[in-house]
Specification:
By secondary structure, this protein is α+β, with helices and mostly antiparallel strands. It contains five helices and eight strands, in the order H-H-H-E-E-E-E-E-E-E-E-H-H. A hairpin with a 4-residue loop joins strand 4 and strand 5 (about 135).
């Protein structure tokens, strides 16, 4: 009696599943990797059913829905990041996660070389960055870079020139939101890039000769 395992096309299905799985493993990004894994799961399901090989059948019956869920999660994440990149830098949706604080003029928010523990969003008032001679006002963000710096120290001293109202977010909350909220992650990246570009522009302007 002829066994299905003796038929070449059954083996071809098994080899195709292996080839698709190997192709996925060679991909450098997650979505193609998952696509290869799903293709391999489907092929091995048919192979396990026709061979028959019940361990193969059961294993890939479990892996197929798992890989399908993961690829939809990854596609949703990519979509959210693309949508976030086209939005403005408004922090309004994040204000419920932040703590509101207020104080009088002359208050030192932080000093140079302090360990950063907060990101600060100025709601109202003016803040002087002493070492830089720069002033920050409503809507400006302070302290977002300190969370990610290798030495983990403040680079200047911030003193309130007027009475102020601030929204603050702890380092722990920043890290959690960075990983959990794509809009917040894109906001942080934009703020850091904008600050680096401004520093570069200021340094470039300082090196240009003064007009006679």
């Amino acid at each position: 009696m002829l066994n299905l395992t003796d038929l070449p096309w059954v083996n071809i299905i098994g080899f195709s599943g292996g080839a698709l799985t190997i192709w996925g493993m060679f991909r450098k990004t997650m979505i193609p990797l998952r696509l290869g894994a799903i293709g391999g799961n489907v092929a091995f399901l048919f192979f396990g059913l026709l061979a028959p090989s019940y361990p193969t059948l059961i294993t890939h019956a479990i892996l197929l829905p798992l890989n399908t869920i993961r690829i939809f999660q990854m596609m949703r994440l990519v979509r959210e990041i693309r949508e976030s990149s086209s939005q403005d830098n408004s922090l309004e949706p994040l204000l419920p996660f932040m703590q509101r604080e207020q104080a009088k003029a002359g208050t030192v928010l932080f000093r140079k070389n302090d360990r950063p523990d907060l990101m600060i969003v100025i709601h109202s008032g003016a803040v002087l960055l002493e070492e830089l001679g720069a002033r920050c006002g409503e809507g400006d963000v302070l302290g977002e870079i300190g969370v990610f710096t290798p030495d983990n120290h403040r680079t200047c001293t911030a003193v309130c020139e007027t009475d102020w109202v601030l929204h603050t977010l702890s380092n722990e909350a920043i890290v959690q939101l960075y990983y959990q909220n794509s809009r917040f992650g894109m906001f942080i990246v934009r703020i850091i890039v904008q600050r680096l570009l401004k520093n570069w522009q200021d340094a470039d302007a300082a090196t240009k000769p003064m007009p006679v």
